[in-house]
Structure formats: structure tokens, C-alpha cells
Amino acid sequence: MSQGAPGPGGGESLLFLTDEQLRKGIEAMFFAYRGFTADPDRILEDLDYGRAHHRAMHFIHRSPGTTVNNLLSILGVTKQSLNRVLRTLIEDGLVESRIGRVDKRERHLYLTPKGTELERTLSDAQRARMRAAYRSAGPAAVQGFRQVLEAMMDPELRRQYQTLKEGGA
């Protein structure tokens, strides 16, 4: 609940957190992220890939045909860094790059069947972990967790997230 939001019974409820409570939340995020990435990291390590490869594959899968520029915007990495990742994924037969029909300068990215299979393996591990955590925490906590995450996003990142969430881009 945010400051000034209506509380139970219709009155105003203010949320005050101590620095210690905030520190615990920050540390919980760090450790949760370690757990969330641990399973895919083990799979990726065997293939000599890193998290950047996983993130690229995730968003290419999420938005087939996305452009390199759109992927750059979503991932927030340098063009050089993304090109290095994409070159590896393309050479290894996981991603296909197609020249744009309208703008020949654009490159549109698609997962190959092999890429789709790897992306599914990586995401299945994360979905299993999230599913178990959500079941344990319950529906109200799931909604609250999403609200907290969205509230932490910068406005431009929230817009990108909303576009993905709504099935666009």
C-alpha cells in the first residue's frame, strides 16, 4: 500500500518503513535474484553462454521478429555487447536474423526451433521456481509483489514492460 492510499475501513493508511526493514527487502531481492538465475545459469554454463544470451533469447521469444534496435532498448546494453551475443546465437543456430521487408537496414530476430527449445528449458526452470513461490505466498502476495516491482521501474521501463505485458512489441 502506498502513502496516502485508502486503508481498511476507508481511512487513510500510511506506510512507514524503517531503514532496517528496507535493508531486509533489498537483501531479499538480491538473494531471490540469485535463486531465480541459478537454474538457468547452470544450463548456460554447460553451453558457454551467459545471462545476456538468456535475456536476448527470452525477449526474442517473447516478441518474434523484434528488431535489433528494439532489443537494444529493452536490454539496455551497448550495440557492441548485443552484437557479440547475437553473433554467437546466430552462429550456433539458435537465432535467425532476417532483413526487414520495409526497411532493408533493419534486422528482425527470430528463435530457430533449436533456440525455442533452449529458451523453453531455461524458462521452465524459472517458471517452476516462481510457481512454487507464488503458491507458497498466495494470490494477495503475488499481486502485491507485482505492484512493488512495477512501482520500482523507471517510467520508460514501465512503458516497455506494459507493452510486453499487453502482448505488443
TrEMBL record:
Keywords: DNA-binding, Transcription, Transcription regulation
Protein's UniProt keywords contain Coiled coil: no
InterPro entries: HTH_MarR-typ, MarR/SlyA-like, Tscrpt_reg_MarR-type_CS, WH-like_DNA-bd_sf, WH_DNA-bd_sf
One MF annotation (Gene Ontology) recorded for this entry: DNA binding
PROSITE patterns the record matches: HTH_MARR_1, HTH_MARR_2
GO biological process, alphabetically ordered: response to stress
HTH marR-type domain mapped to chain residues: 19-154
SUPFAM superfamilies with a match to the protein in the record: Winged helix' DNA-binding domain
PANTHER family: TRANSCRIPTIONAL REGULATOR, MARR FAMILY, TRANSCRIPTIONAL REGULATORY PROTEIN
Name the record gives this protein: MarR family transcriptional regulator
Native source organism of the sequence: Cereibacter sphaeroides
Lineage summary: Bacteria, Pseudomonadati, Pseudomonadota, Alphaproteobacteria, Rhodobacterales
